[in-house]
From TrEMBL:
This protein's name: ABC transporter domain-containing protein
InterPro entries: ABC_transporter-like_ATP-bd, ABCG_transporters
Entry-linked Pfam families: ABC_tran
GO cellular component assignments: plasma membrane
Length: 70
């Protein structure tokens, strides 16, 4: 998984609220990765963006690639 410059905004409240800001990273095959942070830090939002689970509720700018594919 490779991410580059992910910005995510919640579409529901007006005006848009940025919930992820310039997140990037690479996870290589066979490696274990942990995502840690305080409550409300955006861990679940990041996982949902990576899994394309909230396409209807957030606007995502940036690129998420798995095995080189978007």
């Amino acid at each position: 998984v490779k991410t580059s410059g992910i910005f995510s905004r919640d579409k529901r409240p007006k005006p848009f609220k940025r919930v992820l800001n310039n997140v990037s990273g690479i996870v290589y095959p066979g490696n274990l990765m942990a995502i840690m942070g305080a409550s409300g830090a955006g861990k679940t939002t990041l996982m949902n963006v990576l899994a394309h689970k909230n396409e209807g509720s957030v606007a995502v700018d940036g690129e998420v690639r798995v095995n080189g594919m978007p």
